[in-house]
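Quick one: Lipoprotein from Acinetobacter terrestris, structure tokens please.
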Amino acid sequence: MNFRTFILMGGVGIALHGCTSIDSFSSDSVKNFNSPQELIVQKNINAANGRAKEYVYSWGPKQSNKDPQSLYPRKHLNSYCSAKGGKFSLLHKSSMSLLKNQWDKKLLSTYSSVKQGIGAYKCVQSDGQSWIVSIEPVAERKLDDGSEARMVGLQTKIMTAWDAQKFYSSANSSNNSAAKKTTVNNQSAKNSKNKAVTSKEVEAKKELETKKETKPTPELPVKHSAQVAETLQQQQLKSYVAARRDLNSGKNQVAACNNAQRAYNYGKLQGTDGTKVYTESGMLVARCLTNVPSYSSRFANSKGQAVKILQNLANNYNHAGAKNMLRQIK
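--- reply ---
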């Protein structure tokens, strides 16, 4: 696989080797963050541009005593959930659908340091609020420093329940279809007895396939008109604007509330409008929890959750609208 091309397409971040200590996974180190999205940003779980970041999942035989970095995203989010008195559990298994190279999938599937840290996880906090985080591998490569260390690019993203269901249902369906097609195509070639594929064999095969590429494909000029990945601030603003528009028009109420929750889950992001978009998204969520039955019925204590959001906005951001809405609710 030409990983340089992948970087241009996927924007995988550079791993910071050994810079995260075990102490940083304690609940005390993350309890002051206002949202899981704020934790992701402040702890640099993704790359600076919000895209995937590389982590070492295998240091190789010479450095086998080192802990893999690939479990860091899951450990950080688990610690945050625990700090909120919550329960953190696997909601959807990963089929590694964002990996286009089949050898990458086979190789990563042999490492528990990858399998145990990917998929969609749900946290149900003690205050009744819940959130879902998706951690997905997008690329794999060998570290270019002469060592035997291998890297995996991980994309960590907060999702709504609907987004997670849609993504993982689609991913698993596509993965099953591809598996069936591969089985049919390879059936006639399986005349010799099956042999278990070890991680070493997969690595060796992948290295061999890479060496066969004797003629490098000339890189095509970058088309600036191609779709540019949105920043976290743009994604948050987009969700907020859609939510406000639909709620004010009275259309697509559930979708509007999902967008409001998605925008609020990003937390307070850096930027001139970061605080305003965050606080106003919170106001929309509170409105959904108290005035949109088709949305609030999903929650056991929707009014209590609305009050907590409004208290956060009133106490931490001195939001006049939140204070007024609290008086109306009480």
